[in-house]
Amino acid sequence: MPRMLDVSDEVRAEIGDEEAARLLAGESAPGSYDCTSCRTPGDSAQERTSTVLFIGDETAVLAFAHATCLPSQIVQVTEEQLQGAVRAIGGTGAESPQQQYQSPQHPQQQYEAVQQTPQEPQPQAANLVPEQAVLGVTSGLVLLQGELHPALVVEPTAPVARPGSLGSGDDFLPLLIEQGFMPLTELAGVPPVLHGWSVLLAAGQLHAVLQPSPNGGRPVAWWQAHQPLQVTDGWRAAANKHQQVLMFAAPVGSIGRQPREDLLRDALDKAAANGKLVASALPLAGI
Length: 287
Fold this sequence. Notes:
Layout: E1 5-6, H1 9-15, H2 17-25, E2 32-34, E3 41-43, E4 49-55, E5 59-66, E6 73-76, H3 79-90, E7 99-102, E8 124-128, E9 131-144, E10 147-156, H4 172-179, E11 182-183, E12 198-202, E13 205-211, E14 220-230, H5 233-242, E15 244-249, H6 261-273, E16 278-283
Parallel strand pairs: 1-4, 4-6, 10-15
Antiparallel strand pairs: 2-3, 4-5, 5-7, 8-9, 9-10, 11-16, 12-13, 13-14, 15-16
């Protein structure tokens, strides 16, 4: 049975016209699947469905998502993340929603980090080229104008110098402002969308924050988890409702490790009042 599949030009170029035709004809695409973004059931015979190709270092996996959750696209991830996503996707009772393809090697991401959560703080190393710093990334829900929004709070545990600088200053916020993040003096409303940046939520887990490639190609990871970050059902539901995630960033010592969302909000308010907070709304998965 023909499928209501969206196959983008970049996905078609990677898997080939023959395989794309087989997918559209229903020969190699599942009917039912669990959406790789929201993890709720979908049916490619009844509703528009996006083909999402995850490319690792050696292999690639084709997954499926509601077209309302994600557009058809290629997403670059590490091989470890890819295998973890395969295990997560394959652990459902629906028809197998992924196929593996051979893919050429891809360069290492420029930035690496892993996450911490309010429940289990785990600071970790990140390469902020050319300086080495440590990033903490915390997920939580933030109440703005009477509505809950999914948020990521990023804070390094050491000053971040400007690339090429020999000084010891902290340029973390100026560097983000130059990328388009907005300084905040209070959390009065939703910050503007920063187009070109996005948050990769796949298989119901947080994988990366993507930024535009300096060469104009596919987005690259500004922050990438060594292991996908588990998020709460409420956080994931809010992300899929708004189709975006709010990213807040503050310099070292401004937020700290907060075990509860109300304490995290208090810390954000104080950082904003002290002129030490920037933010933007990032669309999901490169939309």
